[in-house]
Amino acid sequence: MIMTLLHIDLNELPVKGLDVQILKDCPLKKEGHEAFLISNTAVLLIKSGSLRISFHDVFLELFAHDLVVLSKGAPLVILETDPQLKLFYLSFSTAFAIENCNKQDLLDAFYFLSGQSIGKLSLDLKSYLVVSLIYKLMYQVNSDKAIRHVSTELQRISFNLFLYELRCIYGHFVSDYHLSFTRNENLTIQFLNILAIHFKEQHSVKFYAGVLYVTPGHLNKVVKYTTGKSVKRILEETLIMEAKNALEDYQITINFLAEDLGFNCSSTFSTFFKKHVGKSPTVYRNSLSK
Q1: 48 CA to centre of own chain
Q2: What confidence tens digit (pLDDT) does each residue in 224-275 have?
Q3: Where is the signal peptide (predicted)?
């Protein structure tokens, strides 16, 4: 499955030059030992399970919360996946990066990241939650047919946010890699960090603004300018994505899910879910098996 994705011609995809996937079913398989050259830069973030690869002739064993950047043209061997492997996958062409990086320093960050062979990075929980959240936002924008043809700017913004966060993470591992963010970028990244940790129990814009010592109006203005979405919309989309993922597990009851996501009762959660998805949680879950 992973090898297939790495061989895809990105120019043939609906969003030319960009592929975002959330892989949830990777059966145990010996992938083989033939090396191949990576066609486009890819970034993998492991959610659960493990993946064994040889990258630049170096053996890497990736576990939950490990991140690796696979640079274009590098030799790769996928050795083995395990039954519990779930991962976030993003691949993009050089042309897409050049066209969609809205600042020179981000373009420089892209060239830096794609040219490094640092190996895997083991993210702390906070960084993992933030990066996985951005993956989910990008996946939603990239896969939603209803908005895909009018969401070019959202794709650009979410891609830049992804590079912002990668640049920040790599800055902790590379001493001579200096970072510079504008005030708006800093505030947005701080908001996403706090959101990734607290979105289940805190649903108000006022809470996030208070933690960041700004007014709700100012936070919303800055986040919307940077991402193209209001704070409330990002929060709602995050809750819906989390709910959809949980509904795939039939062991999780609607009552438990409503409580886990911070709703005071299942009926309030069901009303919220139906408003945004067009189906009740039960109907949505039943549709997954059809």
Answers
A1: 15
A2: 887 778 899 889 988 988 898 889 888 999 999 999 999 999 999 999 999 9
A3: none
Q: What is the 3-state secondary structure (H, E, C) of the chain?
A: CHHHHHCCCHHHCCCCCEEEEEEEEECCEECCCCCEECCCEEEEEEEECCEEEEECCEEEEECCCEEEEECCCCEEEEEEECCCEEEEEEEECHHHHHHHCCCHHHHHHHHHHHHCCCCCEECCHHHHHHHHHHHHHHHHHHHCHHHHCCCHHHHHHHHHHHHHHHHHHHHCCCCCCCCCCCHHHHHHHHHHHHHHHHCCCCCCHHHHHHHCCCCHHHHHHHHHHHHCCCHHHHHHHHHHHHHHHHHCCCCCCHHHHHHHCCCCCHHHHHHHHHHHHCCCHHHHHHHHCC
Q: Yes or no: say if 94 and 41 are a contact pair by the CB < 8 Å rule.
A: yes
The answer on pLDDT for 220 being more than 60 is: yes
The pLDDT of residue 111: 60
Q: Give residue-wise pLDDT tens across range 39-90.
A: 888 899 999 999 999 887 888 899 999 999 888 888 888 888 888 899 999 9
pLDDT band, very low/low/confident/very high, at 170 (cuts 50, 70, 90): confident
Do residues 48 and 64 touch, judged by C-beta distance below 8 A? yes
Q: In percent, how much of the chain has pLDDT > 90?
A: 32
Q: What are residue 278's phi and psi, to 5 degrees?
A: 90, 0
pTM for this prediction = 0.71
Q: What are the chain's domains?
A: 2-123 (2.60.120.10), 183-288 (1.10.10.60)
Cα 67 to Cα 63: distance, rounded to the nearest angstrom: 9
Contact 88, 22 (CB under 8 A): yes
